[in-house]
Each structure stands twice: as structure tokens, then as C-alpha cells.
Give the backbone structure.
Amino acid sequence: GQNIDQPTEMTATEGAIVQINCTYQTSGFNGLFWYQQHAGEAPTFLSYNVLDGLEEKGRFSSFLSRSKGYSYLLLKELQMKDSASYLCAVRGRDDKIIFGKGTRLHILP
Amino acid sequence: DTEVTQTPKHLVMGMTNKKSLKCEQHMGHRAMYWYKQKAKKPPELMFVYSYEKLSINESVPSRFSPECPNSSLLNLHLHALQPEDSALYLCASSHYLRAAEGQYFGPGTRLTVT
């Protein structure tokens, strides 16, 4: 079966660092995506990993370990506007993209 | 232009109505997608078009009928929907099916079936 797991909710403080984990079991693997979704809005693309290792993009970094079926999204210097849901999504062998249930991140001042 | 547009923004329809959702992009993307999203749930893939051909149909009921008239346009025709079909319908596009930069999502159409 196909399964993508991520924590339901997390809370962090403005200016801090937070790591959101994602584990997956899918039929084949052709890349892992992270999206940000604010309430009532469409998802916006944050990062893509297809090879093992860390991809850095400004305050956001994403890591992938294919052998462990594991990824994380690291957010640094948190800002209030980072309060949103963060969706981990995996593209399988058949090119279907499956989303995890999302992690709601709350930022406290 | 790095935008995916969707019309209408909101739609209320009865169970006997026929309506269509429209999606447009002018980024030269050759893969286009329809997703359904219920409140506090992740998007669920419905259909994928690649080079204007239907590539993936996730066993969606026939009351939803997709159409890709050209590389910039994607429609979703709706007929005899049920109240449980009420949701946010998201259109997305990417350069091609295995693009590395992810999908660009439109703002969605919020559909209510009465």
C-alpha cells in the first residue's frame, strides 16, 4: 500500500528553527515535494528532492534519505507568516503524486 | 506570466445541474492536473493530462468529466453531482509529468452542491 506520514500539528516560536518530518512507503519513487498551504489558499511549491541529501533554499531546506523512506523540511528564522500547513507529497513509479495529510504549524510570538 | 487561473471562484449548483470549471495557464506547461480538496484534508488527485492526453484517471466517478481542448486550457465538466462532492477543486500545472520544480496551483473553485 501507499502511506505518507507526517505529524498533525507542531508549535514553534518566532525566530526559532523547526523540523517537520515525513516518512513514506510508496509504489516506486520519482521524487518528493514539500508544499506550503495557508488556510483557504492553494498550495505553493517549496522544494523537490529526488536524490539523497540536503537542498537549501533561503530559510527553507529539505532533506531526503531514499533508503529510509524519510524526508524533513527545516524552517529557520521562523516568521509569523510561516504559520500554515506543510504538505509532503511523493511521486510514485506511475507518476501519481500522493499527498500526506499535512502538518499544521503554529508560530508563537 | 507564472499564474494558473481558475473560474469561477465559487459555484453553487443543484444535483440536477450541469456546470463546468475552467483552468488556464500560459507558462507553456504540458502537464495539467485536477485535484479535489476537502476541509483540513490534503489534495486528492483526480485527473492528469500530459501533452493534452488523459494520462491518469484516479477512478473518478463519471459525473466528473475532464477535457483538455489545448495545451493552455483544462476543463472539468460536472453533471448530477452529490452533496458529498462539495469541496475545493484545484487545478495545477507543471512543465511536464516528471518536472523537478513541482506544480503551480491555481486558487481553486469552491464548489457547493445543494
